Amino acid sequence: MEGPIEFARSLFPPRMHDRIFLVGGVVRDRVLGLEGEDLDLLAAIPPDELVRSGFRLVEAKSATPIYFRHLPPIGKIEVAPLDSPDSIPVDLRRRDFTANAMAMDLCGTLIDPLGGKPDALALRLRACSPGAFLDDSVRVFRAFRFEASGWRMMPETEALLRESVQAVPDVFSGIPNERFSREMVKALGAADPARFFLQMVAFGAGTEFLPELFRMPRVPAGSLTHHPEGDLFTHSSQVLQRMAGRSSDPLARFCAFFHDLGKLSTDPMLHPKHHGHEEAGAEASIRFCNRLRLPAEWRRALLAVCRHHGSGHRWRELRDATRVTIAQQALAAGAESILPLVCDADRDGESAMAGWSDALRVARMGAAELGIPPEQIESLAPADRGPFILQRRVEALRQTRPAT
């Protein structure tokens, strides 16, 4: 597939190429030799030229009008009009980090008034202006997200971020939960996802979005015999790190980090024990994911992992009917591959869920595959059909084992 700049050239006549500019992440990625996906443009051409090129004006959230077009394979393409190419440096100084404050015209000429290229090549985060974090406080979490991908804040940017968070008590007011969650989800897909949460705690940023995170360091993970790491935050971070080595799926990593959500609800008088934390976590996961405006599949998966990860650790002790039931519920939640990975990362060893694939296979079997005639099902009372099919699945599971 052609790159974004080549694709953008195809949208406009060549006579306009020196007055249309790629900006932001796509330029940064091009400098780094990566293939960017977003296509944000500035255009110093008359609006009627944009319309003739297939763009339409959409209602903007800010005073700046935005022209929009949707085309495969890029998807959404946004163009912000400029009065003149001379105003590009002003636009770039309003951005978050110097590495994101570069522009490139469609002829390939780089415009870099803030020295973003050397910062990008060194994976350095340097704020564009003293007001960078106050102008849009979600940039705080964007900085943490970049750090999860291997970037590091310059000392003056760290100091500016800390000052911005501490100077304004309600610095994050007005930021929709969706915007925070978008940064969190991107961080979960990065090379070092635990860094995102570590920085939130270190800078005291984001209690409005993740109050649970800031309670974790004060809660024991369990008895020191089983959890020598001590507190719940350290334990959850270690599980997330181990999961990152097993799966690149942000959802699997999310479930790994928050699998012990229920330990925040157990009676402190009983600590370090956390009896009933699996069910408490399942109940809390619904409110938790709804508050963060996460997709329904994330809510279902976290609920299943919170509820069943303890059973996964006791897998060898479970009755066959319980194993099949857990497999059915994991399938319904879309967590069939995530649950054993979380159990593995939680214990940092070989998964104890031996035979999980067999349990999944029989849980997927319908009545016909189980050899149950339709008339036999119809002859049963509705309340008896589920238990009857479960028993047949249990029999099918037992048949997978070698005779002793």
- Write down the oligomeric state: single chain
The helical percent reads: 40-55%
Largest sheet: 7 strands, mixed
Low-confidence parts? none
Q: Overall pLDDT, averaged?
A: 92
Structure, briefly:
This protein is α+β, with helices and mostly antiparallel strands.
Structure notes:
The chain is α+β, with helices and mostly antiparallel strands and 404 residues long. Helix content is 48%, strand content 8%. The protein has 20 helices and nine strands. It has helices at residues 4-9, 25-31, 47-52, 88-93, 116-121, 132-135, 139-148, 155-167, 177-188, 194-203, 211-215, 232-244, 250-257, 277-291, 296-313, 320-333, 338-347, 356-364, 374-379, 382-398; strands spanning 20-23, 40-43, 56-58, 66-71, 75-81, 103-105, 110-111, 124-125, 152-153. Strands 3-4-5-2-1-6-7 form a seven-stranded mixed sheet. The protein is globular, with a radius of gyration of 26 Å.
Note the topology.
Elements: H1 4-9, E1 20-23, H2 25-31, E2 40-43, H3 47-52, E3 56-58, E4 66-71, E5 75-81, H4 88-93, E6 103-105, E7 110-111, H5 116-121, E8 124-125, H6 132-135, H7 139-148, E9 152-153, H8 155-167, H9 177-188, H10 194-203, H11 211-215, H12 232-244, H13 250-257, H14 277-291, H15 296-313, H16 320-333, H17 338-347, H18 356-364, H19 374-379, H20 382-398
Parallel strand pairs: 2-5, 8-9
Antiparallel strand pairs: 1-2, 1-6, 3-4, 4-5, 6-7
Helix pairs in contact: 7-9, 7-10, 9-13, 12-13, 12-17, 13-15, 13-17, 14-15, 15-16, 15-17, 16-18, 16-20, 18-20
